[in-house]
Design brief:
Blueprint lengths: L3 E16 L5 E17 L3 E5 L6 H8 L7 E6 L2 E2 L5 H5 L5 E4 L13 H11 L5 H14 L16 H13 L5 E5 L7 H18 L2 E5 L3 H7 L2 E6 L2 E7 H6 L4 H8 L6 H6 L40 E2 L5 E2 L7
Parallel strand pairs: 3-8, 3-9, 6-7, 7-8
Antiparallel strand pairs: 1-2, 1-4, 4-5, 9-10, 10-12, 11-12
Helix pairs in contact: 3-4, 3-5, 4-5, 5-6
Length: 326
Amino acid sequence: MSNTLLDVRGLKMHFPITRGVLFERQVGVVKAVDGLTFDIREGETLGLVGESGCGKSTTGRAILQLHRPTEGRVIYRGQDLTRLTHQQMRSYRRQLQIIFQDPYASLNPRMTIGSIIGEPIGEHGLASGTEKEDRVYELMRLVGLNPDFARRYPHEFSGGQRQRIGIARALALEPDFIVCDEPVSALDVSIQAQVVNLLDELRERLGLTYLFIAHDLATVEHISDRVAVMYLGRIAELAPCDELYRNPKHPYTRALISAIPIPDPEVEAKRRRVILRGEVPSPLDPPVGCLFHTRCPIAQSLCSQEAPMLEDHGQGHLVACHFPEG
């Protein structure tokens, strides 16, 4: 886990806002991702958490070049993916895959399960005929599905089974790195643990590396080695998983962790909740200075004037706050 697999530097993803029909003009820009810098080590799971709309999914798609970044670098095994053409990027698709959030919308309802899982194998010319069919059956068994179901259609499966199909499709090209874009948020709670455990087992068995995107901090704690907390397109805090949950330094992180339910009425009654005031500002017009200062319970005048840098506070614990642990 000491080797860096993916190095993200100054990643920005800005979406222009235009008006007009015949003559469009740009009237603004949505700063969905605004200068992310982090790395992902080979064999680890980096959890990426934050409120809805903070830019988590956009980050994953920008890393995979499904969105071409406005600015920044995404270096995979020494190659800057942002400099590649679409044709050059195609050769990297085998190593970089994604599991989508919605298992109902991400599968083609007109295709059988066998065809869905086998499509990338055929597209990249890895196998055909009986060899391709055997590979599909092997992938189905790997994710806990009966190969006899290969000729069935997506509507015949439950949400958890559909997500297993999506996982099998992502594994079809034997990738090194997978973006898990909220893979359990659309599933029943009873099924979420099964899918998370499956992902963890596959990582150990196949030597995979994950960017695990979620808004459920309890799920992220279970599967992640390190956790990055996003707020309004930027990283507020990044630390090893145990360190972050035991010793959160950013007030936003403390608020998120305080909202995790504890299945013990006595402990739940005694702990202090951190309630955030106001709403998340619009990425179309983010606040000056610290992005969080409009909702921060410890904000001071400096926070509204100067944006804090993401600084190391020891043991790889990075925090972007003028008054950490304040």
